[in-house]
Amino acid sequence: MSLTRRRTLAVSALLLIGSAALTGCAAGIDTDDTGSVAVVEKFLKHLEAGEATAAAALTDLDFADELIDDDFYAASAALPTDARIVKTSGYDDFGFSATVEFVLDDASAPESLDLTVRENDGVFTIVRWSSYLPVRIGPYPAHGVVRVNNTLDYTLAKAGNDLTLLPAAYALEYTDPTGLLRLGAEDDTSFTVNSPNRGEGFSIVPSFLPDVEPSITTEIERLQNACAAEGFTGPSCPPGLVDAVTASPGAATSSGEWFRDSGIDIRMKGDGYEATSSYTFRNDELPDLITVSYTGTVTRGASGAVVFAR
């Protein structure tokens, strides 16, 4: 046999070996989706039946123990209905992929979720769902508690309240012990949140009621007028102003002007809130402009009015 013939046979043998190796690798990816489809269908049926424990048992997702409770789940504003698989993508290196749809509150706009299933020793498990973001309850620098499904309470100012929830529409209620905050423009305290969340997810961010800042401003203006009547040296005046006017006696009988530097800064302090409003004060008898501020607690009084007290 010639050298050329031997080389041709050798190359042919290598090609056959390579083809066999590739065939062996391809055979390692399961193409039978029966088990994967079955576990997804079981998962959806458990959700529709309100069986949170059984549904979560088909996954290896990181749910907090208190969130996987049948009574808690059944208390949701809406559970999935008409849940079904609408698309499968077969197997890849990550597992079997399926897209499911279900209705929560609008049959014309069903929710969708992409699931991935893997098999290990004959057991099929949902290992992830895509486009999922938790419901985030804080941390936000405000007093109050958020109750989920009229069962579990989460402190708004506390960190770590990122809730990974089974698909449902959850009932949330915000309680503010100070009476100063609201959620949304309509002063709603009860609302629903659909899980899963897509896009930017959902975060609870309260704001002060519309009467809070104007009430603080009105009280500070009253103090400023009283301060002028006291010759800018009395108890209604902000710290720092009294010393400056005392050092320039003519300033006590001269008019002054107040220029607010920025908006009112309201922050949590103890069980309530503290507000600070800074001003630049000008008086013709003073050699320089003076920066002063009014600081006091903010509460809602028994009459319902906002109270700013120094």
Furnish the topology, listing elements before pairings:
Elements: H1 3-26, H2 34-48, H3 52-57, H4 70-74, E1 81-92, E2 95-103, E3 111-120, E4 123-129, E5 135-136, E6 145-148, E7 152-155, E8 162-163, E9 168-175, E10 181-182, E11 190-195, E12 202-203, E13 207-208, H5 212-229, H6 241-247, E14 256-260, E15 265-269, E16 272-283, E17 290-300, E18 306-309
Parallel strand pairs: 5-12
Antiparallel strand pairs: 1-2, 2-3, 3-4, 5-8, 6-7, 6-9, 9-11, 10-13, 14-16, 15-16, 16-17, 17-18
Notes on the protein architecture:
The chain is an alpha+beta fold and 310 residues long. The chain folds into 3 domains: 34-129, Roll (Nuclear Transport Factor 2, Chain: A); 135-206, no CATH class; 212-309, Nuclear Transport Factor 2, Chain: A (Roll). 24% of the residues lie in helices and 35% in strands. The protein is built from 6 helices and 18 strands. Strands 14, 15, 16, 17 and 18 form a 5-stranded antiparallel sheet that branches. A 4-stranded antiparallel sheet has the order 1-2-3-4, with helices on one face. The protein is elongated, with a radius of gyration of 33 Å. The termini are far apart.
Question: Short description, anyone?
Answer:
The chain is an alpha+beta fold and 310 residues long. It has three domains: 96 residues, Nuclear Transport Factor 2, Chain: A; 72 residues, no CATH class; 98 residues, Roll (Nuclear Transport Factor 2, Chain: A), CATH 3.10.450.
